[in-house]
Amino acid sequence: MDKRILVLAGPTGVGESTITNEIIKRFPIFKRLTTATSRKPRGNEKNKIDYYFFSEENFRKEISSGNILEYTYIENRNTYYGAYKPDLEDKLNSGFNIIVNVDIVGAKYYKEHFDSTTIFIAPESLDDLKERIKKRSPDISSEELDKRMRNAKDEMEKEMPYYDFIVVNAEGQLDKAVEEIVEIIKNEGYELS
């Protein structure tokens, strides 16, 4: 079976979206899976482009109907995130490879059901990650920052060992991280053209 789905994961602020966009720019055969969520759109976010936005009730209905393949409920945000089956099938049927940005629940799902390669993108250090988050969100409250740092520490200690590969995305060295991931996907047998 050809490798079609690639998992790129990591703690918030580590640059997984930037790396995902960079891979898609270099290899247009890749598309990002658009995540389904029960949260409200923020800023300029558009339905079906940034996320598939559902009310909490409708998200649960989508789970029941089998349209949400795997999902996570983030208790402290009272929000669901998951893989929207119609988006996945549409992209696969159109011949694309798919990059999914998920947590450990999603990583295990795609590994088991699609033989996906899973890559954890790690910061150089937690201090480095903290600075990045503060730079990206200067208005972040200290409570929110602490919460994200606790989550990041948990992910790195408890989840990172389950991934096939770990790539460090050091501050100012995005190209190096992207090149490392490109080498991995070539060696793992993904179609790139």
Outline the structure in words.
This protein is an alpha/beta fold and 193 residues long. It has 2 domains: 127 residues, 3-Layer(aba) Sandwich (Rossmann fold), CATH 3.40.50; 62 residues, 2-Layer Sandwich (Guanylate Kinase phosphate binding domain), CATH 3.30.63.10. The protein is 43% helix and 21% strand. The chain is built from 7 helices and 9 strands; from the N terminus they run E-H-E-E-E-H-E-E-H-E-H-E-H-H-E-H. Helix 5 crosses helix 6.
- Could you name the ranges where pLDDT drops below 50 across 5 or more consecutive residues? none
- Topology-level CATH name of the largest domain: Rossmann fold
- Name the CATH homologous superfamily of the largest domain: P-loop containing nucleotide triphosphate hydrolases
Broad shape: globular
CATH class of the largest domain, named Alpha Beta
Number of domains: 2
Radius of gyration: 16 Å
Biggest β-sheet description:
5 strands, parallel
Helix and strand layout, with pairings?
Blueprint: E1 5-9, H1 16-26, E2 30-32, E3 35-37, E4 52-53, H2 56-64, E5 68-74, E6 79-84, H3 85-93, E7 97-100, H4 104-114, E8 117-122, H5 126-136, H6 142-159, E9 165-168, H7 174-187
Parallel strand pairs: 1-7, 1-8, 2-7, 3-4, 8-9
Antiparallel strand pairs: 3-6, 5-6
Helix pairs in contact: 5-6
Fill in the keyword field for this structure.
four-stranded mixed β-sheet; globular; 2 domains; alpha/beta; five-stranded parallel β-sheet; 193 residues; Guanylate Kinase phosphate binding domain; Rossmann fold
